[in-house]
């Protein structure tokens, strides 16, 4: 019987997975393979939070495959060597893989293609698996964008919105496997050392689908009005499920759009789908400019400050600016942070303190479950003004942001217990308390004066 291999990467799902569907069409026997990739672990990308989430994803995928007559085959080591080995052991003629945007994913694809060709096998790469619209599909005809990608979101979004998405496909009924050796399914401790954050969500396709259904039922309607409200926690929290591919972006978008037309055109669905366009936007930028993971996309000739104490205070949520500290503590506790909070802590680090965006991106990657090279690195660059923001020098004032997006102070009180007794918006300005009340809080004084920070940034960028 003919066999083919599916190499699962950032597409850990059975439903609406074009990679798996194509492999099943191509051969009677399919080997669903996951390689615990020494290259990814070696790059420090498998943190305790992501290891715990990934272990859940693999267990759920295995369960789904077993219910269909198969199971997940697990190997460990160099991803190319192990994949070729499995293909040889099972006499597979083809390997199927989802395309990826990062430099690592692009190199993996090239290496795999050459190694398989040497063995007389072929690699089939599938697009629109990890993104809704594949990088390179939408290319600007002219203007202030790159040649092979859009550098500005608004025109990209216009084209993206008009794009017809492929139809959503169901999970396969049966997956038949040839005889093949597998390692046991890894637990979190086999993938990374150290404890995962206490507030970590469960990973996997089943959990992702439960959350998507609940979100469409009772979250989406209020999204446009409430998504920026820090205390309301009114966003989908689907990012980690999308990052690991437990959910298909095509399916999420299609269901949100269908929900909107059933319930008449809806601002909530539109605003939500727009955020998913941002995701594709960053992926197409990174696919065209993989070096933007490490280098300025648009240099501003910054000579970033280094101050280890300031950086440590920012990381620990001890800057003396309550909304910044609340967000940094939420990150440490949950492995997730609200988008508005990500923007304001990133602006605080890169503009008010004027530290290198790579410091912040690296810290986020150490803790975020949804940490994604494209979304993390390019959002950091967007906020730092070295990326695709059309207003690269804007600075978010944490006090103004706090009053606007946490007007009653509930978000801060939830995450900064030292300040829990301060009422209403007074929680945002603890430095205004008189001496003894202030000292009793055991909460640090601000690490920087906002006016001075702003002036320093403007001087550094040559704006004054
Ligand atoms: C400095 C910084 C770093 C970030 N790092 C990441 C990251 O590593 N991984 C990641 O998935 N997102 C990242 N984001 C984007 C965004 O903050 C998260 O996707 C969002 O907070 C996830 O919560 P949610 O699923 O509830 O989002 P929702 O508001 O429900 O949005 C729905 C989905 O749209 C996508 N999305 C939303 N906003 C953005 C955005 N600005 N850019 C790209 N995609 C977006 C996500 O997939 C998200 O799940 C970052 C943003 C900033 C400012």
UniProtKB/TrEMBL annotation:
Binding-site residues, FAD: 223, 235-239, 272, 370-372
Entry-linked InterPro entries: Crypto/Photolyase_FAD-like_sf (IPR036134), Crypto/Photolyase_N_sf (IPR036155), Cryptochr/Photolyase_FAD-bd (IPR005101), Cryptochrome/DNA_photolyase_1 (IPR002081), DNA_photolyase_1_CS_C (IPR018394), DNA_photolyase_N (IPR006050), Rossmann-like_a/b/a_fold (IPR014729)
Keyword Flavoprotein: yes
Family from the record: Belongs to the DNA photolyase family.
UniProt domain Photolyase/cryptochrome alpha/beta: residue ranges: 2-131
Site, Electron transfer via tryptophanyl radical: residue positions: 304, 357, 380
Required cofactor names: FAD
UniProt name for this protein: Deoxyribodipyrimidine photo-lyase
GO biological process assignments: nucleobase-containing compound metabolic process; response to light stimulus; response to stress
Gene Ontology molecular-function annotations: deoxyribodipyrimidine photo-lyase activity; DNA binding; FAD binding
Keywords assigned: Chromophore, FAD, Flavoprotein, Lyase
Cofactor details (free text): Binds 1 FAD per subunit.
Pfam families named in the record: DNA_photolyase (PF00875), FAD_binding_7 (PF03441)
Region annotation Disordered: where it falls in the sequence: 180-206
